[in-house]
Structures are given as C-alpha cells and as structure tokens.
Design a protein that fits this description.
Structural class: alpha+beta
Radius of gyration: 21 Å
Strand content: 25-35%
Distance between the termini: 81 Å
Shape: globular
Largest sheet: 10 strands, mixed
Helix content: 25-40%
Length: about 200
C-alpha cells in the first residue's frame, strides 16, 4: 500500500504541470472577436484557457468617449496579434485609458504595439496588425480571418468542409457586401435586382 501511494503521488507531481493551462483575460474596453482562428460566440468577459504554444487574437478597442459635449462610441477596426504562451501563463490584454475621441484617434493613428500583462505583474508590448481597415460586424470576421490565415499559410487556417471553388465568387460578393457602407449596399441590391 505504501508503494502504491508513493507511485500515485509521483505521477501526480509529474502530470499536473503538463495539464495546466494558462488563462486569457481582457479589459472591459477590449472586444475579443476571435481566438486561434475561430470567432468567439460567448461573452467577452469569460476567461479563456490557453495551452502552451502560439496563439492568435483578433480584438478591437471599443469604448464610450467624449466628443465635444456628448458621449460617442469609439471603436477600432479588428486588430490581429500573435503571441506565444507557456502552459501556466495567465495574461491580460490591456486597454489604453482614453477619455476623448481626439485622444483615441491620435493614440491609434500610428501605433503598432499592444500591452499584455502577465500574472507576475510584468507588462510586455506585442506587435499587432489591423486585420482589415474597415469596421466589420462580428459575423463577417471569420471569412476575413480565414482569408488572412490562408494567405499567411499559418496553422490557424480552418479548412471548411464546404470550401468549393464554385463558391469563391459568391463568397467574394458576400464579403464585399459586408464591408460596404449602407449607400454601397443599396447600390449592390439595386444592381442585383436589375440582373
């Protein structure tokens, strides 16, 4: 019996660190859109488990700020960041503290790094890229992200089962429609009806 307890304790000590996962947290001003090539459906405030390895985050800054005497919503286009984590890394994507629209516009006009806080209190800057220059609805992120990941030939590209060559034109039109403003959408609708 003594041998059995010793073996069980030794196994637990060896296996426990291998099964641990880190956790991803985001500030309330950050809207997490996708993680590791997949759009997120759950609430933004839900912590996410992160296994050791490379991760891809798609997010945007979204906050109510002052513009003159009124409050408006300011949000960035979707931003993409890649980060390598260890199994027990707890990280938090930090949001800048911005209170006015002009301050937010200036902050994001020429910035290419984002701050990430680790559980030990250290803060590191990580490069990011805009996924697209346009403000997309969350429903359109997956298509744009798939195109980006396929072009980058990275491990985050999700091959869809129904990805047929005949649907490429339809997908392109749908993507253009989703990226269009309201006036452009109305023009596309009129054109389709005339055909």
């Amino acid at each position: 019996m003594k041998y059995w307890k010793h073996w069980l304790l030794s196994t637990a000590v060896i296996v426990a660190p291998l099964t641990q996962a880190g956790t991803l947290y985001v500030d309330k001003e950050i809207e997490l859109l996708a993680l590791d090539g997949r759009v997120i459906d759950a609430l933004n405030t839900t912590p996410r488990d992160l296994k050791s390895g490379d991760h891809q985050f798609v997010f945007r800054y979204k906050n109510r700020v002052q513009d003159g005497g009124r409050e408006v919503e300011f949000k960035t286009p979707p931003l993409l960041m890649n980060l390598n984590t260890l199994a027990n890394d707890d990280i938090e994507i930090l949001a800048p503290q911005l209170s006015t629209k002009s301050q937010a516009e200036l902050y994001f006009s020429n910035r290419t790094v984002w701050r990430v806080k680790y559980a030990d209190g250290s803060i590191k800057t990580v490069n990011y890229d805009p996924l697209t220059e346009k403000d997309l609805p969350k429903e359109a992120i997956q298509k744009v992200l798939d195109q980006y990941n396929k072009a980058q030939e990275n491990g985050f590209y999700q091959v869809a089962e129904s990805d047929e060559a005949g649907n490429d034109l339809l997908k392109s039109i749908q993507l253009l429609y989703l990226q269009a403003n309201q006036k452009q959408r109305n023009e596309i609708k009129e054109w389709v009806i005339k055909q």
